[in-house]
Amino acid sequence: MTKPKPSQTLSWQDRSETQTAGWQSESGQPPPKNVVIVDDTTTADAAYWRACAGTAVLYQGDFQNAKQLLQAITRRVDRQAVKPVLTLLEAFHQLRSRQIGRANIVNKVLIELVDGKCPLNRAPDLQQAVEHALGETALPRLVLSLREALGMIGADEWRKKGVYISALKANIHADYGVYSPNRGEYLDLIHQASFQQASADSPNVAWDVGTGTGVIAAILVARGVSHVTAIDISPRALQCAARNFQRLNMQDNTSLAEKNLFPEGKADLIVCNPPWVPAKANTPIDQAIYDPKSRMLKSFLNGVGSRLNENGQAWLVISNLAEHIGLRGANDLLNWIQQSGLKVEEKLDTSPVHAKAMDQSDPLYEARSKEVTSLYQLIAA
């Protein structure tokens, strides 16, 4: 992967000398204006209160101690009182506010990389994980949050391991910043849905809008679709999908398109698994979950009909979690489908099996326990 080197820089004082390094933030946060050096003698309380006041702490010392400091700060953030709420909508907004506030504080713990390596004592080899996440930045010095660096390490391990997809009888590998297909129930719907065509043959041309890892496109190829165009606005996602297609020996049956929604031409089948929750996205990975004001969903519905060949079909895969929370009206989706000149030919439903759906301590458990994921097979009205 290639990615332009960070254009922003961070400066701080160390022993009365000004130090400067490139600044990396996955969420696009600007470099902090105030930075102080901390080490193994710094207490968690001192670092926590500095972070709460907006001052970032650049760690110099032992890497494992830095991790312990980060964990201690995180515990202090999580101990903040939860206000009583009356509705699931209030619970959702409070949860998102706490998540964002938590990230703002814990991301104030910084580390420096020199030539892609972390100079702290007992630091793991970060170079491969960082290069897979950011590409070769060509910067001799780079500062980023410790939390983000740990995320890169974890993502690199999952990238190498992959996620087993039963419909493919193979693993799909997610790069850093690309949403991993851990929730298999919606993929089962893609695998099970029948192709509603005049002939019994599989569609010749299909599009996977918002492809991510390329997992839906791969399932369609495995089901016999002659050619699938994997579409995404993110170059990082498209590179990830291309690697997965190559691993699965599907490169001759797939192509890539860097588009917001639709490429040129028409297709027999157009599939979209949009972000399910109409709320603000704060990081690139959030964009796989949150769709502000349902913009992508509405744009897909409004435009997909004119991109279908005769007897073509659109498959929309979406959960009703937003309806249970109160973020979307109970009839909004069906109304938008109808207003777009489409109708539902068939609808397949499944229940989630992920851990949060069973966790009664989750603030949104009442909504998650009732969630249904559906595949809407849409045709022209």
List keywords for this structure.
381 residues; alpha/beta; Rossmann fold; 2 domains; seven-stranded mixed sheet; six-stranded mixed sheet; 12 helices; globular; disordered N terminus; N5-glutamine_MTase; methyltransferase
Which secondary structure elements does this structure contain, and how are they paired or packed?
Layout: E1 9-14, E2 17-23, E3 35-38, H1 44-52, E4 56-59, H2 63-78, H3 88-106, E5 109-114, H4 127-134, E6 141-145, H5 146-161, E7 163-165, E8 170-172, H6 185-192, E9 205-209, H7 215-222, E10 227-232, H8 235-247, E11 254-258, E12 267-272, H9 295-304, E13 308-319, H10 321-325, H11 332-339, E14 342-350, H12 365-368, E15 373-380
Parallel strand pairs: 2-6, 3-4, 4-5, 9-10, 9-12, 10-11, 12-13
Antiparallel strand pairs: 1-2, 5-6, 7-8, 13-15, 14-15
Notes on the structure:
With 381 residues, this protein is α/β, with parallel strands linked by helices. The chain has two domains: 9-158, no CATH class; 163-380, Rossmann fold. It has twelve helices and 15 strands. The protein has a seven-stranded mixed sheet, sandwiched between helices. Strands 1-2-6-5-4-3 form a six-stranded mixed sheet. Strand 1 (9-14) and strand 2 form a beta hairpin. Helix 1 packs across helix 2 and helix 4 crosses helix 5. The longest helix is centred in the N-terminal third of the chain and has 19 residues, at 88-106. This is N5-glutamine S-adenosyl-L-methionine-dependent methyltransferase. Residues 172-320 form the Methyltransferase small domain. Residues 1-28 have a biased composition (Polar residues).
